[in-house]
Amino acid sequence: MGSLSIWHWIIVLVVVLLLFGRGKLSELMGDAAKGIKAFKKGMADDEDTAAKPGEPARSLDHQPKVEAEQTKVS
Fold first, then answer.
1. Which residue of 8, 27, 52, 61 is 20 to 30 Å from 70, comparing CA positions?
2. pLDDT at residue number 46
3. What is the structure's pLDDT at 16?
4. Is the confidence at residue 12, as pLDDT, over 80?
5. Residue at 48 is within a domain
6. CB–CB of 28/20 below 8 Å?
7. CA gyration radius for the chain?
8. 68 lies in a domain?
9. Can you tell me the distance from the alpha carbon of 68 to that of 34, in angstroms, rounded to the nearest whole number?
10. Does the keyword Transport apply (predicted)?
11. Mean pLDDT, to the nearest integer, of 31-52?
């Protein structure tokens, strides 16, 4: 009574297939696999950038501040 028998699992499987359908389940599994691959790729990219020393910081050229002339409007 405490554990699920094979009949319980079959009924659960049938209900899941009826609710989601065969195509929807394969889409969900494909999307989950793509998400896992993207996550692993992102983690690998983070490790690669952390291992490589970065380029020295470049100084930015800036324009001198220009003061606007004040004119009186009559």
1. 61
2. 75
3. 85
4. yes
5. yes
6. yes
7. 31
8. no
9. 56
10. yes
11. 82
